[in-house]
Amino acid sequence: MPDLPPLPADPRWKVAHLPFLSAVSAALILCAASAGYVAGGGASALGAALGVLIVTVSYTMSTLVIAWADTVRPALLMPLALFTYVLKYGALGVVLAYGVSTDWSGKTALGMGIVAGVMVWTAVQVWWFTKIRPPK
How many structural domains comprise the chain? Predict the structure, then answer.
């Protein structure tokens, strides 16, 4: 076995942003559902909320897998991260392919919820790591 690098003194910083981002995502789910309901009724509210929820689960899963792999054995980081991304985008592709082929009236709101979730999660994560808690 090769010598492994020492573990960081406090590996919790890798997931310290998750509670705040989860709260922001919960607020965004409520906002998206409200906007969807106003714009197109119950189906649009459900679609918008599901879109944000898909992004939240996806990004949280990636963060947890990457943080775990980096803490346990950094050599696992690239294979596990790539596997996670393939799994996530494969599942998202199946969901979107199925959604496009249906007549469900909330599919446009679902797409808009996904876009909103990606934009907000990414912006808040960048803000967190640059302003609130820069990594050491």
Answer: 1
